[in-house]
Amino acid sequence: MTLTPHEVAVSQLDPTQTVPLDRIKSLRFIKNNIIGNKTKKDLYIQLGIVSRLRDIISARDEKDPQLKTQATIVLGSFAFGNENNILSLTDSGVVEPLLSCLNPNGDPKLIEAAARTLNAIYASPKVSRRELFMGDHLNILVQLLDTYSSSYQLGQGVVMLHTAELVASILARCCETTDQQMQIAASGAIPLLMRLLTSGVSKSQEASLGALAALVKDNSELARLIAHMRLEKGERPAPYILRLVWDKSPTMRLAAATCLTYMNRAGVIPEHNNEIMSTVLPILVKMLQLSGYVQETAPKVLAHLIWESENMQKAVCDMDAIPRLASIISQMDEDDNVYGIVGQKDKLKE
């Protein structure tokens, strides 16, 4: 029986049958076939590719990091599929070897690819975070926030920064309980996140704000610690973050507003109450008129901010927030195709 090109490509991942160069070619062939193609992703999963990829990234005697890097990138392509694909990866045990690829002394491109894939996997709330907090994985992960690390060579700055952004995002997604918050803080992540916050690179700053917000949410101890820290030039974090609320990027404004909201609810920045009322509140209300992730998330942050403040609740009403929220719901009911992304309409309506 003649094998299809896809079956041949999977069979060529067997280390006993092919040399590393042929395996890399097969991985690139597979990657080009599955990017943006759900049907092909399902096909390759049915052909048993996940266990082959897991074995490649688990190998300890592999001398060429390019093979592991390509296998990790392919795993990442599957992770950017649907929830079932992510669960297929985790059920096959890929998380532990991916975490082991995050060796700060290893190949920077492999580290970045592993961090990107883990970030995509942890986007699913159904995935256990347990392995990250086992052994030394968390401490090693946090080291990758240090973009000044001497383990990197000259010219690797962009890769370092991308990796740090991904690590911050992973920490934000693995910060769901008080115990996880405290473990991340104990690992030394907060000072490195502060440095990332003042990097001047938008995506890095957004990622840092996301992680800091996750750490301070419903945690007055960490909120107080962060509020009283000093940035590199001696400034407290809150005034710096307040300036980011005016950034031209909607996602940056949302990230800054979210972080300030959680700090405000923790009662650790009372000196900025007027600015929260006069700046953060109206900016969140304006975000209701945007689209996508920002519009979907802003109502939750707004609700959290005004939850126990009658003054803020009255202020929001004066800003016509209720008609804007009602307009979103009525528009969705009138035209189900306005919000074309699957699942977005339900999230937004919620």
From TrEMBL:
GO biological process: proteasome-mediated ubiquitin-dependent protein catabolic process
Keywords of this entry: Cytoplasm, Nucleus, Repeat
Annotated Gene3D superfamilies: Leucine-rich Repeat Variant (1.25.10.10)
Annotated localization: Cytoplasm; Nucleus
One Pfam family in the UniProt entry: Arm
One GO location term (cellular component): GID complex
Entry-linked InterPro entries: ARM-like, ARM-type_fold, Armadillo, ARMC8/Vid28
Keyword RNA-binding: no
PANTHER family documented for this protein: ARMADILLO REPEAT-CONTAINING PROTEIN 8 (PTHR15651:SF7)
Name the UniProt record assigns to this protein: Armadillo repeat-containing protein 8
UniProt organism field: Entomortierella chlamydospora
